[in-house]
Write the structure tokens for this entry.
Amino acid sequence: MRIYLDNNATTAIDADVLQVLEGSLRDVYGNASSIHKEGQTARRMIEDAREAVARLIGAAARDVVFTSGGTESNNAAIFGAFPPEGRFHIVTSSIEHPSVIEATRALDRRHADVTYVAPSRDGVVAASNVIDAMRDDTRLVTVMLANNETGVVQPVAEIGAATRARGVHFHVDAVQAAGKIAVDVETLQCDTLALSAHKLHAPKGIGALYVRRGTKMSSHLVGGAQERRRRAGTENVPLAAAFGAAATLSMQPHDVASVRDAFERELRAAFGAAITINGERVARLPNTSNVTFHGADGEGIVIALDLSGVAVSTGSACSSGRVEPSPVLLAMGLSPDDARATVRFSLSRFTTLAEVRRVAALLVDLVPRCRAR
Ligand SMILES: Cc1ncc(COP(=O)(O)O)c(C=O)c1O
């Protein structure tokens, strides 16, 4: 049996979610905009799903727009909320997901000035640094709730209070946080917030964008009145239903942290000061362990673990055959060698103690053989 510890990349579909998906794919084929019975059945299903997703983030159902996933939600918010003309300013962080970073860079090439706020060594983007970076011409602030590589939770509510006070649009990428920690749009005081279903045991290709009522934004897809005109196109009812079911299941209590903590204790006992657990001292997602094995080759560890039946990942990107160290870890001040020596273990509610103990034992054996060249 393989051990899957790459749940921040994507998750397996929950068996109950799969049932919902299969049932709706088979039985609910009506167009949710049609007035006949088939259409109304589809409409009810998508509205129930919207309620469930809204509950996950403390929102009103009418403020939830279904999208194709986190990337679309982030793009829609950033391009939709930023003024189409004139020169204005954006504040974001240097540890955002590429779907945020690349969108702000695209605006930078057109008519925006962008400030990228760096994190601390622990991976925290200080709220005061974001607030200090705001200017009179700032029209958009976008900061993630939890980082996908380190799991570090950002002080988003504090930033939300400041943006609200100044009337600046605040977007939050909550793709990694939702389903793992409590997310509440009122506490965060955000105007828009991105979600992705495949990070919480639902299928890929569906996500949501929360848009606070009254928010002025342009639509990224036009040509239909669906999703309150915020996202045109015939709704994908089965995927939305699956997302709704997964959102409800993710709100049940799960003690993932105790399994992750046991894993880290085993690593600490075996490796001592030869490892650094990044973000260990600050608030983190309960499922994420980002570990630097000093002097080792992270890519080599990932490959060796894969051959031993374990799926994990590095934060590095392979561009033109060369392994580039993770920009997130570099922004936190890790050296390129340490960044390349880092591996991300991301657990799920299905991960067992026996599994993480097996992975820890494998690492004890593997790491000394995966030295950096
Ligand atoms: C923080 C974060 N934002 C956005 C995304 C993109 O989501 P999707 O894969 O649904 O496009 C991801 C996916 O890895 C992510 O981790």
Summary: The chain has a mean pLDDT of 96. Residues 152 and 284 are 4 Å apart (CA to CA). The two ends are 32 Å apart (CA to CA).
